# Entry
Amino acid sequence: MGERSADGTRRRRAAVVMAEWGAHSGEVPSAVRAVAGALALSHDVAVVSLDDRGDLRSLPPRLSEDGIFPVHSVAAAACEARLPAILTTALALGAVRGSRRAGTLPDLATRRLIGMQSRHSPEALERLDKLAPEVVVLAGVESLWIAEALPVGPDRPRVVALPLLGTDERLASDAMATLAEVADAIGAVSPAEERLLRESAGRRDPTLVKRLHVAFPVNGQASHSRLAGIASFGRYLLVISGWPEGDPSAVAGMPHDYLRSVLGPVSVAEVRKGRWLVSEEGRHFEVPWAPSRMNLWRLMAGAVATVDLRRQGPVGREAVESLAFGTPVVVPAGSVAAELAAASNGGLWYEAPGELLDQAGWLLAHEAERLAMGRAGRELVVREHGDTDRFVHECEELAGAVSPAQGTGER
Amino acid sequence: MAELPVDARHVVDELRAIRQSEGVSPRGWAPSESFERVLSEAIRPPLHENEHLAWMHRNWDLGALLAPPPARGVRGVVRRLQHRLIMAVLAPYFSRLQEYLAVSTRAVDVASRRVDDVATNQLRMIGAVRHDMIDFAHYVDRRLDG
# Structure
């Protein structure tokens, strides 16, 4: 900790706090890992992982290496998962029935929901005290409580909040506005998140909310080397119902012959929880290759369109990657991925399964428009998510290591 | 090639407008994948082609092991004498054992074929039910679409 860099200056210390670090490789962990990686270029980064250890709460904090960062695991109990789910559904139903205006979630319910999801842990505060970082990055709603709990004084580190809530209306609530009083900067990883945060925390101080263009580089080689065994299936639609393994956003897939019976003769490749299947009329093939991201890219690069059935995350990573290969997407409405599709004209979005079939059918039937959508999507994704230098600069700016005017500020 | 301007929002609105003009909402339901999973998981090599069963078929016959030793000379004479002595005592046991192995192998073979038949029939039934459900889904869709 606190080692000197090549030019002899002492490197700053940063601590990244999030729940269940390394438990799965879904969208939130990969975005936080990208932020931690960007900070590691100029900081000594340590991770404090708020882990629900079940009955083993009395065990002392553990320190391990995950190959890149030292990870301090502290016990932080999670609440029963169904309670926030019920409250979230109730709040969403309120919006549907029009019992309240959009952007005006009941304050008490919102605070209660954030409180439920918070993973309070005195051990985490002790660990942060020992690490004595100059910057604390609080990633995910589970860790935001730390911003209020950190002692005030000259030794207080710079607090950076990353709510990572996507299009969740809680971002625009008063509960989030109070975050502005205790955080030194708030990072938004999508335009939707930035817009909502500006309605709440941004009202107090517009300079507090900063946009992070998370860089998700893809390996362009994937478009030249298609997944072995796929070529014989001809034109195929890629359906994602479960990815990556262990990601809680996985949902039930859709029968391939049902899709074909509505969409006409087209092969279907499905990335589902635990297995990948490719099928055409009367034949199906279980992909024997490793379910790696490179192989997913190979599937994306050769697909007619990528249809995402999962609950969407705060960045829309798979939509970003599909568009990077020029493959249009069909994604759930109201998600960050849907906003990306709309902003880039790189895909369509659906509210109900029937709409999904309508949109996928339209893409299959309109070849020229589909190709134009792929090109338009790719253009925006390369601009917004393909610039690693800009992302690193934004992370450093968030951490207070550089001023906005410095370096690549012109971009 | 000239760039074809595409407005995604316009496409989504247009597709929704088509549905609305038909007086129907888009389907809110799609058949679940559960049957598909059952079907794809059920496709396995037949049990009667199991490698253990194949081994039993190859090795149930003890005839070669129970035959008199073919060695020549004094050693051969001694071995054959040993064989005759042992067989005089254990021949009924070996005979019963041979019979038992043959019947067991046949029984496992019959059971495995029966299991394969049941699995095939079940697969056929699930396939038929699933096919009917998808047909039914389309029927409901058509009726709803007027």
Notes: Residues 48 and 112 of chain B are 5 Å apart (CA to CA). The longest helix of chain B spans residues 73-144. The mean pLDDT of chain B is 83. Residues 45-144 of chain B form one domain.
